[in-house]
Amino acid sequence: MPKARARLALAALGLGCASLAVPAAAQPVTPARLAAVLACTPAAPCAQRLPVRVVIVSMFEIGQDSGDAPGEFQLWKGRRHLDTRIAFPQSHHDLLYNAQTGELGMVTGMGSIRSATAVLALGLDPRFDLTHAYWLVAGIAGIDPHQASIGSAAWAHYLVDGDLAHEIDAREIPPDWPHGRFALHSKGSTDPTPAERPANGEMFELNPALADWAYRLTRETPLVDDPQVAAERARFTGLPQARRPPFVLKGDNLAAMTFWHGARMTAWAADWVTYWTHGQGTFVTSAMEDTGTMQAITYLAAVGRADRNRVMVLRAGSNATMPPPGLAPAPYLLRENQGYAGMHAALENLYRVGSRVIDTLQAHWSRYAASPPQ
Question: With the C-alpha atoms ordered 252, 179, 235, 140, is the resulting torsion angle positive or negative?
């Protein structure tokens, strides 16, 4: 390869040249360095560290990592060439790494307990240098049909926890209460004033400039649609956003370990996000893990092991959080549990949208290693 072309190729990957003062996390990984890290005992002292540019955070895989029906991780593993398996027995799933790009894929396991412990375990593992790493959480979700359609992909600004709460059984809710769930230390579900700073991890605000940048970059990304998704969204009469073909939007995530469903629960989720964000957030997606993930990164940031300003959360709707008008929630949820209408579209759209962000970070790494895009 001519020298000029070689310099251009290295610059595109952020791997040269010395005059750019490229951070250590951008240096190439030699085979010897990779072998030395792979020989280290997990979580034990290690003489070498692997530089990580992007951590791709998936929550579950259905079966194998390749060759069968895909879960959240499979497309990332195959298409981003995450081919080096790194033992990670202190968590749910081994890690997969691309030594050429510095991309690291992880599968946390479902639920905020697993996501928090997996991310914390990774951040404290001495085999990895996460100093300049971006975190891309990319997973399927329930999506509020008032805000978006099945298959759509939403970039979050706020992550709100739906588990930290008081609850009254639905059959015993006081008649003047809109919901049976209400905030810790509040005076019930009619108490309008949340704490200025949630004390227990009820809400996390992501870097708004980074979230806005990711949205602007990807908002015109062509998304997958299919006949099954089209047929399902047509049933949501009177809800114009739910009837649109899949699109990219900005919208916030509520994380709760209970897989809830229905129009009343969707109304509660919208109110809960409004409450904890002081009216600044909009409920769009429902999942289980993201506040746990962000709590762990917040702790890691306190000891210099991660940068919480480099976290992005992208969720795509595999199903709606409530049934179409006129249908009861219980049978609709039971049917969806046999196979989400938007599963294929959501997985493909997560990859299309998220990969555009990763590709851009990689192409301009000499700039974005130093500070996040805005």
Answer: positive
CB 50, CB 132: distance < 8 Å: no
- Copy the structure tokens of residue 196: 């200025």
Which among 244, 304, 254, 246 has a CA at the least distance from the CA of 277?
254
20-164+200-368, superfamily in CATH?
Answer: Nucleoside phosphorylase domain (3.40.50.1580)
Type of residue found at 222: P
**Residues in Cβ contact with 216 at an 8 Å cutoff, skipping those fewer than 6 apart:** none
Residue at 346: amino acid letter: A
**Spans of all domains in the chain:** 20-164+200-368
Q: Is the Cβ–Cβ distance between 322 and 141 less than 8 Å?
A: no
Report how many helices (DSSP H) and strands (DSSP E) the chain contains, helices first: 11, 16
* Per-position DSSP letters for 261-280, written without gaps between them: -SHHHHHHHHHHHHHHTTT-
Tell me how far apart the alpha carbons of residues 278 and 274 are, in angstroms, rounded to a whole number: 6
Sorted by sequence, the CB contacts under 8 Å of residue 125 that are 6+ apart come out as 42, 43, 88, 90
Task: Give, as one character, the DSSP assignment of residue 41.
Answer: P
User: Mind listing the pLDDT tens digit for each residue in 168-185?
Assistant: 998 999 999 999 999 888
Across residues 137-147, what is the average pLDDT? Answer: 98
Whether the pTM exceeds 0.85: the reply is yes
Distance, CA of 70 to chain centre: 17
pLDDT digits (tens, 9 = 90+) for 298-347: 999 999 999 999 999 999 999 999 999 999 999 999 988 888 989 999 99
CB atoms closer than 10 angstroms to residue 332: 18
